[in-house]
Structure formats: C-alpha cells, structure tokens
Design goal:
Elements: E1 5-9, H1 16-27, E2 36-40, H2 46-52, E3 59-60, H3 79-85, E4 89-92, H4 95-100, H5 105-117, E5 121-126, H6 130-134, H7 138-150, E6 161-165, H8 179-204, E7 207-210, H9 218-222, E8 229-232, H10 239-246
Helix pairs in contact: 1-10, 5-7, 7-8
Bound molecules: 2-phosphoglycolic acid.
2-phosphoglycolic acid binds at residues 9, 166, 171-172, 210-213, 231-235.
C-alpha cells in the first residue's frame, strides 16, 4: 500500500554531538500521524544516529552512495557498507548531488540498481530548474529524469522505490511550489509511471514533495491526493518544526 513518509535530509549539517542532541530532541516529540519518519544524517554520523534512535519510531537513512561494491573510489561508500551498518534506505539523485557532483541519469540508474540489489529501499529525487518551469518544459524534464534513471526497472522493483519531486527552484529558497503545482506534477508523474508499468503499480508508489516545506505550509501540500509526504531539508534540523510537519498529515 502507498505509504505516507516524511524524511528529514540533514545534508552536510550536524557533527556527532549535534546529531545526538537533535535525536534527543526528536525523542521528546510525539507523533500523531501515521507517516513513516526518516532522518538522513551524514555518513560519519549514521552509526551514532542508529545507536541513539534505536528506541524511536524513526528510520535512519543515507543521503547518497556509490554504485560499485568496493574498489578504488576514494571518498565513496557502497550499498553493502551501508547495509553492514544497518542502513536500509538511501536517498539518490538529490539535486545538490546532480548540480555540485555532476551526477547524471546514467550514474543514478547504476546507483538505483546497486541499492536494490543490496535489498535497500531508494528515495529517488528529481525535479526541474527554474528555467525549465519558466519555459514550460518542467514536465518534459521530469519525465526524462524518471525514464532515464528508472524505466529499466522490473515491476517488482517498484515496491522498493519512493519518488521525491523536488523543483530545484524551491529547495532552500523559501519558495515552495503551490499545493496545486505539486499536485499537478505528482499526478503527471503517476501518469508517466502508468504509461509503462500500469495503474496498479503507479498508484502504489509513494511520491514525496520537497522544497521549502515548513510547518506553516505542510498541511496544505500534504492534503493533495497525489502527495504522499515530504523530503524536508532546513526544517528537519529543528525537532519541533520537523514533527509539526510529520503531524501535518
Ligand atoms: P529544503 O530542502 O526543505 O531546505 O528546501 C529540501 C531538500 O533539499 O530535500
């Protein structure tokens, strides 16, 4: 069944002490929604986050990984290494990875395969830039990002894939897509999936929205029928704000 998910992407924030402190703040919050809650600390803080959140209803996930199993890839981390720590889910294709680390659709297709073959769940991010939106090409861009990185997957693989639509112009800018723009794109994404995989699969995939989701706009965005949750950056660094978003369902 389609799940509601709120995932906090901590990006390159929080050292070990700050990770412990934020998790202890998270532990003080109460969850009144049915959404699955995830947090994504940096690689170096994953072990600590796993240890300190073991009593919480929160999954600790990774922000990225390499597609190779091991080898001469200085500075990289593989799916099996994440699995060996106890991490079961990875965010792939975040726009900051695409923009600053030059990750292309074909690299992302390999990362998705590596994660799935290690029995990991994938949160796959994509979204258009402002120029694409202004020129009316946003749907075309999103469609090609999905097709290039994901359309080689089998039907069964979709059980382990969550999508995160994040318009680049809304990330960290304070500018969100309107709930209507989010709904329109999410419905379009479902139609793209249905064109290859059929309605049964497309209606079961969770599609998260990301980009300046805050306590004051989450409820309206999450109320849209094709929006199944959020990928939260800035607001996930404050436990109260994050849980206000989790409880917006
Ligand atoms: P933001 O980041 O909530 O700070 O806009 C979202 C994201 O990058 O996933």
């Amino acid at each position: 069944m389609r799940k509601q998910i709120v995932a906090g992407n901590w990006k390159m924030n929080n050292d070990l002490a700050e990770t412990r402190a934020l998790i202890s703040d998270l532990a003080k919050q109460s969850k009144i929604s049915n959404a699955e809650v995830m947090i994504a600390p940096t690689f170096v803080c994953l072990g600590t986050a796993l240890k300190h959140s073991s009593n919480l209803d929160v999954e600790v996930v990774a922000q990225n990984m390499h597609y190779a199993t091991n080898g001469a890839f200085t500075g990289e981390v593989s799916a099996s290494m994440l699995r060996s720590l106890g991490v079961q889910t990875v965010i792939l294709g975040h726009s900051e990875r695409r923009a600053y680390f030059n990750e292309k659709d074909n690299d992302l297709a390999k990362k998705v395969d590596a994660a799935l073959s290690n029995n990991m769940r994938v949160i796959f991010c994509f979204g258009e830039e402002l120029a694409d939106r202004k020129s009316g090409n946003h749907e075309k861009v999103v469609e090609s990002q999905i097709k290039n990185a994901l359309f080689h997957l089998s039907d069964d693989a979709w059980e382990s894939v969550v999508l995160a639509y994040e318009p680049v112009w809304a990330i960290g800018t304070g500018e969100t897509a309107t709930p209507e723009q989010a709904q329109e794109m999410h419905a379009f994404i479902r139609s793209v999936l249905a064109s290859k995989y059929g309605n049964d699969i497309s209606s079961e995939v969770s599609i998260l929205y990301g980009g300046s989701v805050k306590p004051n706009n989450a409820k309206e965005i999450f109320s849209k029928p094709d929006v199944d949750g959020g990928l939260i950056g800035g607001a996930s660094l404050n436990a109260e704000d994050f849980y206000a978003i989790v409880n917006a369902f």
